[in-house]
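Field: COMPLEX_INPUT
Field: COMPONENT_COUNT = two
Field: RESIDUE_TOTAL = 564
Field: MODE = joint
Values follow.
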Amino acid sequence: MRLNDDEKAMLDGAEGPAVAAAMDLLVRYGEALGADRLCDTRNVAGTMTQPSPVKASLVRAGGWAKAYAVLNLDSDGDFEIPHMRVPTCQLQQGFGDDALGLTPYPPAMIELQSDAESFYGNHGVTILATCTPYQVGNLPVRGEHCAWMESSAVVYANSVLGARTNCEGTASTGAAGLTGKIPCWGNHLSENRHGTHLIEAAVPVDGFLEWGMFGYFVGETVQESRPVVTGDLHRPDLADLKHFGAATASSGGVELYHVPGLTPEAPTLDAAFGGRAWPEPIRYGRRERRAVYETLNAQGDRTDVDFVLLGCPHASLDQIAAAARMLAGRTLYPGTELWIMTPRALRTVADRNGYTEIITRAGGRVLTDSCPAMSKAAPPGTRVFATDSAKQAHYLPAILGIEAWFGSLEDCVDAAVTGRWRGGLR
Amino acid sequence: MTITLTGRGIVPGRATGEALVSHETISGWGGIDPESGTIIERRHELYGVRFTGKVLVFPGAKGSSGWSGFFQATRLLGTAPLAMVFTTLSTKSALGAVVTRVPTITDLDRDPVTLIHTGDRVTVDADRGIVTVTPTHV
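Field: COMPLEX_OUTPUT
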């Protein structure tokens, strides 16, 4: 990999040992990828504050600097951590103090995270604490080189916003924050951004549930490739595309898709494929739609639901408003919990609009920072959960060993107020 | 009789051990438990199988961007695989191999997942990009 003078100087220690360690990691990683060079980035989204037992023992041994060196730079060195060189934000983390006592999640982890927020806040990390930074102040512009983690955010940034990021990890984002560099490989290069597969919806894809199911099919079908989707697609909003992308990145590893006529790099079908011949379309019809629904619902037998989880990826204001309208004047079934996860910045607006009060009066909760899958914790005694998120239905049963139901927001709210799953494919 | 595959070493070093072959891609976050070094994804063919000390042969990484962090944790907790050999390179698997710091080879001339079988004795020479397989099956 070729380094410019500025990068060589950083590697040689001109900006201190932490920056040198960061550059060393980027060189090892870039060479493993086979990248020719690094590119400049001024937009990093990574994870520093999320607590874990490994992190707790590193902090005990050598403070936050040690934790950053080991986990965020993959370095064995002992050095101080300077201020981030470029704008860097914290993605979703563990539960915050609003979840204290609601789950078996250890209070010591909440304290450790609060301590981490102070340290990293002082070092230039913006604590957005969400898997959807693009909802709360980090909205990259088209063509901007980013270094983001979080597969659902990566696919949104590349596809919906036309920004350029690979699916980075804890160490590469840690190194990018201190250097403003990331390997120029994969999605950063124009030639790697054209479609590889064509998928045609023969059934209407309209609304949050349908976009999520369609995404789950697309991810399973193309795996790591770059799908172009066409057919009977009804105009999606932010939440629909957030669900669609998260689903493609759960059943598969999609980091970039195109919707001709809608997403920025695909004004036409021709443009989506970079002027090359279109491949044979793969059909998403009634049978495929039913198969997705059945896969996502093959993890539940018992119909008594004790927990309903909404807001994966973190809910938009529209989603919170819709849930509030549906819960207004109703009461949750005794023993059934309903949580909506959202960024703290959006909960502030939900509070102001009265949505939080309506949801809370019904017995639900609007929580921030994390989700049950990230924090590996649900309300005590949860055996069966329901969700409107294909991603959460995909991951949570394995993480917590519980049963899952997947369906519409209406089905989920019905389960929350009756304690029974009565959802079905309509 | 041995089989030799040639590829590109992406993390240097040399190691010899028993192969553990996954025909399915592997998830990091939600897919492995770093404390026990086992695959925990319920629908995975290696559900419940321990990879610690094995030469892990697999098609590639899938799922969350936590992949590298989870594999780095296996190194920190002493449950890491001995070496890695995989078919498809991505940012997840490249960074994951780098921070796990075990000899790793990818971009091979033949498909390691079909040629290598669980239990085979495998030498991963990542300094030269050569995987040598001594089959134990008939």
